[in-house]
Design brief:
Distance between the termini: 41 Å
Radius of gyration: 18 Å
Strand content: 15-25%
Helix content: 25-40%
Number of domains: 2
CATH topology of the largest domain: Rossmann fold
Number of strands: 10
Number of helices: 9
Strand order of the largest sheet: 1-2-10-7-8-9
């Protein structure tokens, strides 16, 4: 029976892990495939961990005093930061791509954040998050009012997963994990978990799931069309598997209809990549895939999934 004096204490850690749920109908024969349900964090995504660790690091260094937290975000990190800032009575400003789903913008504003969308006529061909980052950095440079966690460059992002997500997965699988899959976004999850697991057993395969160029999978990045995050540790990644929008959408349908799992676009992409890699490589044994967030924060994605039904 768990009781929490502070909502932030519900964010996953080694003493309070998020659930590991087995996918029974979709997994290939010989594979025990489980999803690490990160949407069970209190603010709805894997980014709750990064936000908590980054703010804690900044607080310890005295960087938050009298400042407004500023972050470029496609949704989940900003939502987590806004919620944690709300708990501390701290102002927060989120710079977001102009095309960000309305549901996430509403949540940011509900938590009290000021939302600054990028211009709709931003440089064509540039990744929306690169544009958002440029806007945020100009705001940061132009005023001593702001302080920015910068999830792409902040080592505390990866440290969150080295200290919490990785140990949780190792314990929940009793050290039997053979394959770990995570989407490529900021690189924090795959780098932190990958490093922890490799230190325990170097034979564990760490596979990054990356969307193809031109994708529309929220939270993930194709590294050929955007700046490579500074915290991404390529040394712990054994292989990359690529997923397109159609594959992710089809997987989302199966997750909902056959497994009753509320997988959002990034979760569906991660599972689609894991399933394909396991089938093509005759994987056997225990596999774990990060499920970054749920479809409940993206009703527009659910509508696309359902089509005309």
């Amino acid at each position: 029976m768990r009781r929490y004096g502070r909502l932030a204490d519900m964010i996953g850690d080694a003493d309070n892990p998020t659930p590991l749920a087995e996918v029974r109908r979709l997994a290939p024969a010989g594979v025990t495939l489980s999803l690490k349900l990160e949407w069970m964090n209190p603010f709805g995504s894997v980014k709750d961990r990064a936000a908590k660790w980054m703010l804690a690091g900044m607080a310890a260094r005295g960087e938050l005093d009298g400042k407004t937290v500023l972050e470029a975000t496609s949704g989940n990190t900003g939502i987590a930061l806004a919620a944690l800032c709300a708990l501390d009575g701290r102002p927060m400003t989120a710079v977001v791509p102009h095309s960000m789903p309305a549901e996430k913008s509403v949540l940011l504003r509900a938590f009290g954040a000021t939302v600054v969308p990028t211009p709709a006529d931003a440089t064509p061909g540039r990744h929306p998050m690169d544009v958002a980052m440029d806007v945020a950095l100009k705001m940061l440079a132009g005023s001593d009012h702001y302080v920015m966690p910068n999830q792409y460059d902040n080592p505390d992002n990866a440290r969150a997963h080295y200290e919490s997500t990785g140990p949780e997965i190792w314990t929940q699988t009793s050290g039997a994990i053979r394959y770990f899959f995570a989407g490529i976004g900021t690189g924090g999850t795959v780098s932190g978990v990958g490093r922890f697991l490799k230190e325990r057993d170097p034979s564990i395969r760490v596979i990054g799931v990356e969307p193809v160029a031109g994708h529309h999978i929220s939270g993930l990045k194709n590294l050929d069309e955007t700046k490579v995050p500074a915290i991404l540790d390529h040394s712990v990644i054994d292989e990359i598997v690529y997923v397109d929008d159609a594959q992710a959408l089809e997987c989302a349908r199966h997750l909902h209809a056959e497994e009753a799992l509320l997988g959002g676009s990034s979760t569906a992409a991660c599972v689609a990549g894991a399933l394909r890699w396991l089938r093509e490589n005759d994987g056997a044994g225990v596999a774990v895939t990060i499920a970054p967030d749920s479809s409940q924060k993206a009703t527009s994605y659910l509508q696309a999934m359902l089509g005309d039904a």
